[in-house]
Amino acid sequence: MGKHLILGSSGHLGVELMLGLQERYGANAVVLSDLRPSPHPAAAKSSFVAADATDFDAQRAIAENHDVEVIYNLVAILSAQGEANPMAAWGLNMNPLLNTLELARKGAVKRVFWPSSIAVFGSDVPKDGTPQDASLVPTTVYGVSKAAGELWCNYYYEKYGVDVRSIRYPGLIGFRSMPGGGTTDYAVSAFHCAMAGETLTCYLEPNERLPMMSMEDAVRGTLDLMETPEERIRIRTAYNLSGCDFTPEELTLAMKGCVPGFEIVYAPDERQDIAASWPNSLDDSWARNDWDWTPRHDLRGLVEHIIDGLAKQSNVDKPTLNV
Ligand code: AKB
What we know:
Layout: E1 3-7, H1 12-25, E2 30-34, E3 47-50, H2 56-65, E4 68-73, H3 79-84, H4 86-105, E5 111-117, H5 141-160, E6 163-169, E7 171-173, H6 186-196, E8 200-202, E9 210-214, H7 215-227, E10 239-240, E11 244-246, H8 248-256, E12 264-266, H9 270-276, H10 285-291, H11 299-312
The structure holds 2-amino-3-ketobutyric acid (AKB).
């Protein structure tokens, strides 16, 4: 059995996926790559290769030298940061993906995972329960790159039979690493502020509803999708995936059940416009039918899980707030 390579392994999702893969397949079966290693203690258990994923030869060398069978390519600039430098976001969000798809086409690896996002949707789709096949007219360069990436994935599957799989992630909420540059990041910051006894200044409106998911659900869903027999995978662009959905006001209320003193104030900025163009919730029936997806955490379960995780986590590698 070949190894699982994570490109972008030191990022918000990369660290959580590393832990999930290590638990499921063992640390020796996981290879990590990023520009810099993650400070997370578990990162030292797997091989790490410092590399730039925009370099095709660098990706190929890791795949060949480490007996890689599956690549999880998580390299990305997220929605809010992407708007500050659209061309850089386009380059970083597309080139590493095309390198990975080319490697798979040439037979260097057997399977590819690439994350898409709710950002592929724009204001023209039904906001509640956005269907799998709703039109993709995104409003950010991040969303444009995710929509284009989905089409590239589908093209490589249809034209070359590359076994590439993808998920449209909602906002992902974990406690082991901090996100950066996203629009949904406020929800992660809320937990860190609450635990530090600080007030969160929220850049969204109190009633801005967005689809969200715990990292635990996201990682389990991703690994389950990757283990599903090929004949059951009917979507080769990206699957809608739903966890729960809430507004900043509802999150605050739920968090006050665990941290009664938690306070939030509102100072909406340009990220509010991005959030307003995204769905409130997604219809994920294709994922439920094709690979038995079921989320575990509703809003209350998510709040308890994150607060419990933060309370138990040592302060040694306390992540830096990024709002
Ligand atoms: C972002 O906010 O940009 C990301 C996403 C929804 O893909 N978390």
